[in-house]
Amino acid sequence: MTETELLDEARHAMLNAYAPYSKFCVGAALLAEDGTVYTGCNIENASYGASICAERVAIAGCISDKKRHIRRIAICSTSGNETFPCGICRQVMSEFMDEDSQIILETKDGGFHVYTLAELLPYSFNSDSMNSGK
Ligand SMILES: O=c1ccn([C@H]2C[C@H](O)[C@@H](CO)O2)c(=O)[nH]1
Ligand SMILES: [Zn+2]
């Protein structure tokens, strides 16, 4: 599954976004350890704080299918430019992705830019943080 193929899946998932409040539609597609692709769209709520991002919807599908390792994730949105994942999504990604795993963002020209998780979330809090004092 290439970067472009994964972005195509994300773009397709974006069509299902439920975003009546922000009107900002996001799609995400991730590649699990076994090569399965999981997709997600943002799902908003009248109680705004109950909304969930596309990335976490995709991750929830993957984890509830008992795949615990994510190789890469692609994200696109109606902004037509790079949509960086929010802080909560970066933290959730860090639970299931390696520091050097790829986050693929669609760019304005229809291309993409690849970041590593470490670039987007340096010095992350993880399970090692809790064990380091023992
Ligand atoms: O990376 C992002 C950034 C924002 N959103 C959603 C949350 C909300 O529904 C809308 C506006 O913030 O976009 C995502 O799904 N992923
Ligand atoms: Zn998010």
TrEMBL record:
Keywords: Hydrolase, Metal-binding, Zinc. Its EC number is 3.5.4.5. GO terms for biological process: nucleobase-containing small molecule metabolic process; pyrimidine-containing compound metabolic process. Residues 1-128 form the CMP/dCMP-type deaminase domain. This is Cytidine deaminase. Zn(2+) binds at C53, C86, C89. It comes from [Bacteroides] pectinophilus ATCC 43243. Belongs to the cytidine and deoxycytidylate deaminase family. InterPro entries: APOBEC/CMP_deaminase_Zn-bd (IPR016192), CMP_dCMP_dom (IPR002125), Cyt/Deoxycyt_deaminase (IPR050202), Cyt_deam_tetra (IPR006262), Cytidine_deaminase-like (IPR016193). The active site is at E55. It is an enzyme of class 3 (hydrolase). It comes from the Bacteria. One of its GO terms (cellular component) is cytosol. One of its GO terms (molecular function) is identical protein binding. Its cofactor is Zn(2+). It catalyses: cytidine + H2O + H(+) = uridine + NH4(+); 2'-deoxycytidine + H2O + H(+) = 2'-deoxyuridine + NH4(+). Substrate binds at N42, I43, E44, N45, A46, S47, Y48. This enzyme scavenges exogenous and endogenous cytidine and 2'-deoxycytidine for UMP synthesis.
